[in-house]
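Student: Hello, beginner here. Can you help me understand the protein record under this note? Any guidance would be welcome.
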Amino acid sequence: MTSRILLFDPADRFVVGTVGEPGERTFFIQARSGSNLISVSLEKTQVQALADRLNYMVREIKQSDPTIAISRLEKDNAPLDTPIEEEFRVGVIGLAFDAERELIQIDLQAISENQEEEPNFIDVDDLSGDQDILRTLITPSEAQSFATRAQSVVGAGRLPCPFCGGPIDSRGHLCPRSNGYRR
């Protein structure tokens, strides 16, 4: 089986969102172009890392080429588009900047079922693997907007315990710093 590249060049909408209650949420990234919609699931830590890296990339782009216009876009607080059907689960994330087109390329590669250890990076020119890739091209302004929403979505989870830092669900939690009493 050969890999597929699901290309959104450029995407009309590229957002992150969740389904479920805090503590049991599933994180999704959706890319939409016209009537074409793809949803992929990933871990909360991957969403946070992607947001951090996109913010870093936008800062680097501003510093390296001040002629690139990066404007604040209107907040996208709309829910994820339905139906939310997982195309695949994300394993490896790759980022690149196309200076000629002034677009950020985001590659979300599916987890390999037959590979025990995931590679540390995606070679965007090597398609010899059998994992699908969602490739989305967005402007630096859209990347900044995505990162802001991603940080908000990640932060909307369970509140941390003021003593141990562990997440507190609706029933409280057994805090190790209070000798096992509920907080």
Remarks:
- Strands lie at 5-8, 13-19, 26-33, 36-42, 86-98, 103-110, 133-138, 159-160, 167-168.
- The chain has a mean pLDDT of 83.
- The two ends are 51 Å apart (CA to CA).
- The longest strand covers residues 86-98.
